[in-house]
Structures are given as C-alpha cells and as structure tokens.
Amino acid sequence: MQHCQSGTGHTMGRAVPIFRDLGVGALCLLVSAALLWSWWKSSPWVPLLAAITYLGMAGLILASVPCHWRGLGWANRVTLGRGILIALLTGTLAEPDLLVRYATPLAALALLALLLDGIDGWVARRTSAQSDFGARFDMELDAFLILVLCLALLLLGKAGPWVLAIGAMRYAFIMAGLKLTWLTAALPESRRRKAICVWQVAALMISLLPIAGATATSWLTGSALIGLLWSFIIDIRWLYRHAPARRPEDYQTGNHS
C-alpha cells in the first residue's frame, strides 16, 4: 500500500471504507460462486480459482489506490463489480467443459462485463470522480478479461496457441517498458483504442459460442489480433516521437537523459 505522511492509525482509518468496499465485493463473489457451483455441479476448483483471482485483484487495488482516498467511489465500485464478473469467468478455466455446457450464460456474464465497461466511465464523469487510478483499474481489467477469453479459446481447442498473443500483448508492452522507459509515458485519450478493446472482447466472446465454427473463429480472432497490432503500432510510434531526447545508450538501458 502507498505510504502517507500522516500516522499509521490515521492512514488505517482512511483505509477502512476501502476494505469495506472490497469486503462487500468478496461477499458478492462468494454468494455468486456458491450459487453457480451448485447450479453447474462443478468441481471446487472453479470457485477456488475465482476467489484467488479476486484476492489478487483486491491486493493490487490496495497497493495502488491513493492513500488519501476514503472509499473507492461509485465509479470504481462499478468497475469492481465488473471485476467480480471477470473473476467468475476466470474460475471456469479450471473446468473448460463448463464453457461448452453453459456457453450462453457465460457469454451473458462476459457481455455484462463489457457493458459495465462503459457505465463506470459514465458514472465517473457524472460524479466528477475521474482519476488516474480509475482509468488504470478499468484498463487493466480490460486486458485481463481479454487474456481470460483467449485462454478459454485455447483450452476449448477453438484456436491455436497464437491466440494468446492477443491477451499477452498488453503485458509484453508493460515488460518492454521496464527496459525502455519512454514506453511508460501517458498516452492521450483515444476512441480508437477503446473501440478496438471492445471489438476484441466481442470477437473473442462470439468465438466461444457454439455457433461459431472454425472459419468464423479464425476470422474473428484474426481481426482482433490485427486490430490490436495496428493500435499498438500507432501508440508506440506516438510515444517514440514524443519521448525526451535520448542518448544512444538509452536504447540499451531504457533510461531517459
């Protein structure tokens, strides 16, 4: 968790509402996972993986949320709700057969997560609660949902290992930024970036449905990959052009001059 200049007791007092938000989210996840587990008659690994996913997300939230915040706010609570849905979807990776038997309900969960992706931003604007943390929270959930859907397609045998390139590209970009620090600069707002993200989720989600045959899946996932590559090329080119002047050795060390 980020350190505040105030005392530990005061810091913990401010953190209590955030723990409460995360606790409510955990309760919602547990109830939902228990109901789905009973309905699907799945193995205990499904709710366990969903719970582990949520705990990891909660830990990252606590490590990243500004230390002066009193609660997450309604916009981030909506995003947290989307995170709960994504955690439930992640749990199904422990038993891929569920993706076949309950393709329509799971597609509905993914669709709801996609719809909430627009609602949290609307709530943030209406309540004047836009923040860097909220934007990052939203973006990282998008990236993780895409990775989960790619893994689901691979486990079902509907796409080859290459489909993981769609889900892994964001994380490869982050790893590259550890060496080439100019890649970590803030990018301007982009409707193109958001539209491509929505198409990726939609294309992967449709590909998981039984009605999507091999040809349709190849076209859908291929278009998602091409669109993502195009978007990354545009962003990397923009970052390179707007990066501070660099010495030749910066290409090796990744340090700004």
Task: List the topology elements.
Elements: H1 8-40, H2 45-64, H3 73-91, H4 97-101, H5 103-126, H6 132-156, H7 164-179, H8 191-208, H9 214-241, H10 250-253
Question: What can be said about this structure in brief?
Answer:
With 257 residues, the protein is an all-alpha fold. Helices cover 75% and strands 0% of the residues.
What does this structure look like?
The structure is a single chain. The chain has 257 residues and is mainly α. It has one domain. 75% of the residues lie in helices and 0% in strands. The chain has ten helices and no strands. Helix 5 (103-126) runs antiparallel to helix 8 (191-208) and helix 6 (132-156) crosses helix 7. The longest helix is centred in the first third of the chain and has 33 residues, at 8-40. The radius of gyration is 20 Å and the shape is globular. It comes from Halomonas daqiaonensis. Belongs to the CDP-alcohol phosphatidyltransferase class-I family. Keywords: Membrane, Transferase, Transmembrane, Transmembrane helix. It holds the Pfam family CDP-OH_P_transf.
Q: Roughly what percent helix?
A: over 70%
| Number of beta strands | 0
Question: What average pLDDT do the residues reach?
Answer: 83
- Tell me, what's the shape? globular
- Characterize the biggest β-sheet: none
Uncertain parts: 1-12, 246-257
Question: What count of helical segments does DSSP give?
Answer: 10
GO cellular component, one term: membrane
Transmembrane segments: 22-40, 46-67, 74-93, 99-116, 137-156, 162-183, 195-213, 219-240
Family: Belongs to the CDP-alcohol phosphatidyltransferase class-I family.
GO molecular function: phosphotransferase activity, for other substituted phosphate groups
